[in-house]
């Protein structure tokens, strides 16, 4: 008598469960920015401390990304995603304690869960939806952006609801993370087969591949642009004269603008012979709209922020799509994802830190904007290699 095969879930239900997990992979990163002024006022946190606060979570994303393949081999990607979602919920809950230590610790713990999920999900998409990789990557990144928008736009009203407590406003996002964890639990089954053993793309092969390094460079630099804006755009808007509520609302519009691009760009790019043109176009849009947000007329802030969000969402969705397209199978996607996100997020963590330090040194937004321009040009240069029709 042979053992029964694990029951394969409905693709629709699996996709819904995956989207519920994805929704909770950005609020931990976008909820601090709208409350940064209140946190600094309530705790005495300086500009350098704020820069470190925006940098540390991105660094821990990279650390978790390196651990992703080991977790996948240990308990499988399905259970690994469940673990990641639970860790995100735990990190968000820590913030309820208030004070700087729980704030920093919660950010790092939540980022570990986010980074782990970010590595495991591309491989799962490649395994479960091999013929719809572009569409599913687009839906996944669109849902990430909707979660980011909710975090940016609703956190200040939550602070008012909780009597001005920024700690409770941040911790409230643990509730949807718990719900996402419960929704994924039915799909957290053992892997059906040791996929890694059949793959031609092993970890040493990836680390020796120039193409893999080009993908990593593009992923890291475009991510740096996004995390700079997650952490600093509310303060930029506040300095331009917007109230805390209005700055949070406009920052939420930036994340809303990411959603359609996160769906459309991967779907479109996956059909192209190569992705170099799409990458240059979306990076150019991101840079142009950033300059309008920071230096353009105030009446253009809202449309410019929406356009900037479209650019950021397109860059991120394109980065994930390139990871999937540059390999042949699920294990290859997991190996390249671990490298591109592990090393990439380590690179990306320097962006928010450098941006904050440049703001402190320059006393305005000209010097930080010069850094943003340099990072954009670097991402464009790496995209010329990463977007070619090649496979690792």
Automatic annotation (TrEMBL):
Q: Which residues cross the membrane?
A: 44-68, 80-97, 103-125, 137-158, 164-185, 211-235, 247-265, 277-300, 306-325, 332-353, 365-386
Q: Name one Pfam family in it.
A: MFS_1
| UniProt GO MF annotations | transmembrane transporter activity
The highest taxon in the source lineage is Bacteria
SUPFAM superfamilies named among the record's database cross-references:
MFS general substrate transporter
Keywords, ordered alphabetically: Membrane, Transmembrane, Transmembrane helix
What's the protein here called?
Putative transporter YycB
